């Protein structure tokens, strides 16, 4: 697939690039990409990642390393098979954590909001979204986020009643959600 540059506008801080089927519009703010608009009418937002979350992730990785790597290294009688199994468990666990953390996306499609983080996904129809509130809680509820500050979306088909998200550009995300869900309570 060959991608070519379509348009650059330095005054607006944006550029377009695409293939024969899809056009991407990327707007930059302080050298950070925060919005992608795609040719199929969908719009994607990445998750905000803050220091609190990175600290929690680092502590989790250190605990996993201590539990999986230290025992076989400290045990003089551990066979190479045990060491390889523990290293594999460490790599799989850390890979899963990193995949789940750094692949978080919130995509506005024509009929629904798609919330994705690693293997965790929620497809939320716009008419079912009833309320959105700001939140500062990182550890409770169903959450697909990587920041302490975020939004909680309440919707009718939710198993736990809501999902917590943390879009990088919160104001633009809220305005896009208002366009697609005019009856939402904020």
Could you tell me the radius of gyration in angstroms? Answer: 20 Å
Distance between the termini: 42 Å
The shape, in one word, is: elongated
SS strand fraction: 25-35%
**How many extended strands?**
12
Model description:
The chain has helices at residues 51-68, 70-74, 80-102, 170-180, and strands at 4-9, 14-18, 23-29, 32-37, 43-46, 105-108, 112-117, 120-125, 129-135, 143-144, 150-155, 162-165. It has 186 residues and is α+β, with helices and mostly antiparallel strands. The protein has a domain at 1-41. The strands form 2 sheets. It has an 8-stranded antiparallel sheet. The protein has a 4-stranded mixed sheet with strand order 9-11-12-10, with no helix packed on it. Helix 1 (51-68) packs antiparallel against helix 3. The longest helix has 23 residues, at 80-102.
What can be said about this structure in brief?
This protein is an alpha+beta fold and 186 residues long. The strands form 2 sheets. An 8-stranded antiparallel beta sheet has the order 1-2-3-4-5-6-7-8. The chain contains 4 helices and 12 strands.
Key features?
4-stranded mixed beta sheet; 8-stranded antiparallel beta sheet; alpha+beta; 31% helix; 186 residues
Indicate the topology.
Layout: E1 4-9, E2 14-18, E3 23-29, E4 32-37, E5 43-46, H1 51-68, H2 70-74, H3 80-102, E6 105-108, E7 112-117, E8 120-125, E9 129-135, E10 143-144, E11 150-155, E12 162-165, H4 170-180
Parallel strand pairs: 10-12
Antiparallel strand pairs: 1-2, 2-3, 3-4, 4-5, 5-6, 6-7, 7-8, 9-11, 11-12
Helix pairs in contact: 1-3
């Amino acid at each position: 697939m060959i991608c070519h540059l379509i348009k650059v506008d330095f005054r607006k801080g944006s550029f377009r690039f695409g293939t024969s089927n899809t056009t991407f519009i990327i707007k930059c703010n302080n050298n950070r990409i925060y919005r992608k608009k795609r040719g199929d009418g969908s719009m994607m937002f990445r998750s905000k990642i803050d220091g609190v979350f990175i600290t929690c992730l680092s502590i989790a990785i250190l605990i996993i390393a201590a539990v999986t790597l230290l025992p076989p290294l400290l045990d003089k009688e551990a066979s190479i098979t045990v060491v390889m199994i523990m290293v594999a468990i460490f790599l799989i666990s850390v890979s899963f954590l990193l995949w789940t953390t750094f692949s978080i996306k919130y995509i506005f499609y024509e009929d629904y909001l798609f919330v994705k983080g690693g293997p965790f996904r929620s497809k939320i129809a716009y008419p079912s979204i009833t309320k959105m509130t700001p939140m500062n809680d990182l550890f409770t509820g169903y959450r697909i986020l990587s920041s302490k500050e975020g939004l909680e979306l309440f919707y009718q088909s939710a198993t736990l009643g809501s999902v917590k998200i943390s879009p990088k550009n919160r104001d633009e995300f809220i305005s896009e959600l208002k366009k697609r869900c005019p009856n939402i309570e904020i």
